[in-house]
What we know:
With 88 residues, the chain is mostly helical. The chain has a domain at 44-88. The protein has helices at residues 18-39, 80-83; strands at residues 42-44, 74-76. The protein binds zinc ion. Zinc ion binds at residues 45, 47-48, 53, 66, 68-69, 73.
Amino acid sequence: MAGQGVQRCRCTCSGMSGAEFWVIAAAAAGVLWAGDVFINPKAPCRGCQGHRGRHGLSRPKAYGDCRRCGGRGERLRFGARWVRRDLR
Ligand SMILES: [Zn+2]
């Protein structure tokens, strides 16, 4: 019975090229990114850092609402409108 025991390795660990690895890695990163954006689609506004436009306590009346976010203090992350159609 010497012919038995010949098994082909079906695992995908062998034979994966570098290009395939990066395609899979990019796809995995995209899925993680989409999930992250879906859970937390908003981020602090870059213009006012989430402070709604008041730049500094020394001159509280020098600036009104942040022009970039309109005083909301937050912005939608890139791609948030794609994964969260209900957001504006
Ligand atoms: Zn702002």
